[in-house]
Amino acid sequence: MTSKERGILIVLSGPSGVGKGTVCKALRGYAPELVYSVSATTRTPRPGEIEGVNYFFKTREQFKRLVDTDQMLEYAEYVGNRYGTPRQFVEETLNEGKDIILEIEVQGALMVKQRFPEGVFIFLLPPSLDELESRIVGRGTETEESIQSRMSVAMDEFRLMDYYDYAIVNDQVEKACSRIQSIIVAEHCRKDKVMNKIKQWMVEVK
Ligand SMILES: Nc1ncnc2c1ncn2[C@@H]1O[C@H](COP(=O)(O)OP(=O)(O)OP(=O)(O)O)[C@@H](O)[C@H]1O
Ligand SMILES: Nc1nc2c(ncn2[C@@H]2O[C@H](COP(=O)(O)O)[C@@H](O)[C@H]2O)c(=O)[nH]1
Fold first, then answer.
1. What is the CATH number of the domain that holds 194?
2. Which atom of ligand 2 is nearest to the CA of 20?
3. 86 inside domain
4. What total of structural domains would you count in the chain?
5. pLDDT by residue (tens digit) across 113-155?
6. Which of 58, 70, 97, 174 could cross-link 62 (Cys pair, CB 3.0–4.6 Å)?
7. Looking at this predicted complex, what is its ipTM?
8. For residue 3, what pLDDT is reported?
């Protein structure tokens, strides 16, 4: 097999406020070789958020055009806004043999699972529901209405956890990062084992 082996697609999701963004940010220090997908959204930027770094900020019309022209790998409506993963960047990264991580909500994750069943799906859990709410409140970015909507959506999201390959608790950021790294290492070992088996069969049938 001469072509480069594809990288692994990792999906990290879980309820709003569980710490996906915080963990991904810390993970950049621990796993600098991982590539991070930047999503598109119709929500307005929060103070400090930068176009192309945190999100690609789009109007509803621009977002619809991206979906209609099949430029989105997945997309979802979440608490009144649209979010989606630009397809081309993900495919190019995987074809270059690099691993990429998507930090997305659950509906979108399930859409990715249909299209990329070989992906690795990780659900991030809070230590408790009270802690989840304190984290959303403590972040100071949401209105009371948005906090309640996000907590309510979280209940539906927990019910879909069975579709994931792994569930890990974000009790401490460093521990969550190390759990994700262990999963990635294990998935590479599993993939290498399968590839070695295929290579062995190819030699045998020659
Ligand atoms: N392990 C942790 N212990 C304590 N606080 C944490 C931990 N992880 C994240 N937080 C805090 O929780 C808040 C929410 O984190 P973050 O914004 O990363 O969540 P998120 O899952 O990315 O949310 P969203 O889906 O809404 O973007 C932040 O204020 C962050 O500092
Ligand atoms: N399906 C997708 N969900 C996404 C994407 N990018 C982010 N998200 C998720 O949306 C909610 C809300 O995010 P916020 O920045 O407004 O707090 C959160 O769960 C994100 O993980 C995406 O491309 N697709």
1. 3.40.50.300
2. 21
3. no
4. 1
5. 999 999 999 999 999 999 999 999 999 999 999 999 999 999 9
6. 58
7. 0.97
8. 58
